[in-house]
Amino acid sequence: MRWRLALAFHVLALLAVVHAGAPLWLEAGAALPVLASFWHEYRGFRGRGAAVSMRLGAKSVVVEIDGETMAASPPRVLYGSEWLLVLEFPLASARRRHLLLTLFPDSLAADELRRLRRWLHYESD
User: Would the CA dihedral through 106, 110, 115, 120 be positive or negative?
Assistant: First the structure.
């Protein structure tokens, strides 16, 4: 969904620049930041991988992304409520510096979500 919205907004921005009625050199100059922003968003979208599994240890987390197993430090909770949990895992990998994991209430079984919340509350400090 994010990728589709980014594509739509960048296309709309380019159309606005083209139909602004400015001189060609000004339109080209205004289109460059839009294209650079789109390229940045595309690179970020292409580099995302899905976390296949996550195992909680005593003081560490092991995540498996696209078949590659990586050790992660305890996650930082970016947002937490009963409806949504957003975690940021710092990774010790040359390719990835961090992993953002968004968990909705139905993305984990009730016992697993309770175990994760308990681990975040008591053992990640």
Answer: positive
